[in-house]
Amino acid sequence: MPVETQEIDVRNDTPAGKLLLEIRERHQYGVDKWEDAKTERDTDLKYICGDPWDKDDRQERFDAGRPCINHDELGQYVNACVNTARQNKKGIKIDPDGNGADEKSAKLRQGLIQRVEYRSKASSIYLNAFQSMVEGSYGFIRLARKYAAGDTFDQEIVVKPIANPNSVIYYPDCKEPDWSDAEWCFVLDPINAKEFKRRWPKAQKVSFTDDDRDLAKNWIVGDDILVAEYWKIETKYVTLYQLHDGTITRVKPQGRYARDRERPVKSLVQYMTNGVEILSTNPQPGELIPIIPFIGLERWVDNGTGAKRVLFSLPRLARDPQMSLAYLNSLEMEEAGLTPKTPYVGYKGQFESDKKAWTELTKVPYSFVQADPIVDESTGQVLPLPRREQFTPNFAAYEVAKDSCRRAIQAAMGITPLPTAAQRNNEKSGVALQQIQSQAQIGSYHFTDGFDRALALAGRVMDGWLDTTYDGERELAIPQDDESHQMLKLNTQEPYPDPKTQELQHHRIGAENPGDHNVTISTQPSYDSMFQQVNEFLNGLVANLKNIPPAGTPQAKILGKAIRMRQMGIGGDQLADIIDPPEQNQMPPQAQQQIDAAHQLIQQLTQALNKQTQKLEAKLPELASRERIAALNNKTTIISALIAAKSDEERLVYQGQLDHIDRILSLIPDPAQETSGGDGETPAPAGPQGPQPAGDPGLHVVGNPGGGAPPAAGA
């Protein structure tokens, strides 16, 4: 949480003064580096919004009464690129990558991230940033943490939009493709002085002098104050020592050691500042800045002053042909305006006798019209009849030139202006139309690739925050692929039964979860997109139920394999399992070994149960104690449940209950043994480390049939 501002000294030789000087210098450096990109972005958006004309040219044409129009050709291609991404929504996927991570922990972490995306409506936020990238070469979103609703200290991760990409000044010297190596970032929020006083009532300065304005020229301008978030990665170095036995420590050993190295340790801090004061200091988790950049096509261009990074939007190179098209459209309309509005021209007096017909001639069809003869006084000859003015605008030439501009626009935006084979043959099949659409998408796929990189970086940031944000015990709803929600209890002390399956579960994360969880992030269709895909596929399958092959046939195996390859999530896997149920020999060798070990254990438990049942039937007539009879019955019931147990946690729980009943039986006298001296059998010692008894019905289950240490069990 924010640390309240304290008395500070802004001189450059104090820690606070050095930090403020660093902030002002980096801000100015970032402004200079981003100036060209932001100028080009503003121009891109003018074209996208249908206004390619220069301000002075537009005013000059307006003053002269000349047409100044534009027929937009860019919007359709930009919308096609963006809407293709909207139809194929993506989400974040986490896979285990060693160091203690497994499929179960990866699934839990992915479920938490899906919850973040679902509650934040992240799909729309991602796509808006993608649209900003396509239209103007870059866009941004942000990740944040907030307190959960109600009187609680539990926190949640949220995805938030950054509506104005120009409000971000990102580290301009990134080298990684996803810009994950950023060292600092600014998010700017200009406000007026009154609003500043309201938001920051505890600020040391709410009124600024001329010295303050000179000190922070770009921060305090007139009545406006620039408040900025300054995100900074702070790096410290520690020395690692490896001993001869392989142990690694940060403490320098007294004797000799095998080797050492310097290791950078990064931490993230957010400062709120107005350029002359640190308003608050907020330490943050993780090692990555939570401002996620969506970057378009990136090229390094040398204009004679050294190579410089240049970001391209989709319409960037199509601006010139679009301007040419607007100019041609304006000239064409200007020439159309030269068309005479008076269709017939004649000498004065030629229209008097049949004036009504001449007046209506352009609207009412007449079989004939009459003109009055007029004699030229100088020559004595009758003047010519009225004539129709002939004017043919040069529209054909304009259309040829405009078509050339349209092809140039398509080529600049990666769309082939030539017809494909399918288009030439006028093919209208679904496959042909899909191929035509795919060819149009290939030219702009580098923007989709940038979209994937941004989502992967967002996933890495969220994964780094999970351990510190969800470290307490709580109950959360996790969205599933079928649009349902599963309630999970997180970080409970003991396992708990699932309400539907009654299987014991134990979901731990953060400090409650032993071991590291390094994960790999990739992009996949979001859960709502996968549900829609499964639903559409299922509708088609239901319509052809009679053609579905029976299970076990080669056709069913092929169909099941095809469904699994579609990657439609849990719903698709369940559908594939119905059509092509998994066989025993399809399981991995390790899973098969675990199943075989479990079968051996079940056989041992069955033998023990049979022997216990026989002894119980033989001793029932001799038992005088109702308590002993009840205890033995309970023991039989628990052994039966132990045989039917599905997980090691359940077996360990039932084993503890058997131990408890054995202790009760040891305290109850056995009338049969008192009269007959016992049955001559001596039970084998039982304990956590002892062998499995061969003759005692109180069988102790030790270890995990699948190998490894058994998980902790609840009472």
Q: What integer value in Å does the Rg equal? A: 40 Å
Largest sheet: 8 strands, antiparallel
Shape: extended
Q: Runs with pLDDT <50, length 5+?
A: 3-9, 675-715
The chain-level mean pLDDT equals 80
Instruction: Give the helix/strand class.
Output: alpha+beta
Q: Could you give the count of β-strands?
A: 21
Gap from first CA to last CA:
38 Å
- Give the helix level as a range of percent: 40-55%
Query: How many helices does DSSP assign?
Result: 20
Q: Can you give keywords for this protein?
A:
alpha+beta; 8-stranded antiparallel sheet; 3-stranded antiparallel sheet; 20 helices
Task: Tell me what you see in this structure.
This protein is an alpha+beta fold and 715 residues long. Among the domains are: 90-180 and 289-314 and 444-526, no CATH class; 594-715. 42% of the residues lie in helices and 18% in strands. It contains 20 helices and 21 strands. Strands 1, 5, 6, 7, 8, 9, 10 and 11 form an eight-stranded antiparallel beta sheet that branches. Strands 4-3-12 form a three-stranded antiparallel beta sheet. A two-stranded antiparallel ribbon has the order 2-21. Strand 8 and strand 9 (248-249) form a beta hairpin. Helix 3 (74-87) runs antiparallel to helix 5. The radius of gyration is 40 Å and the shape is extended. Mean pLDDT is 80; it is low at 3-9 and 675-715.
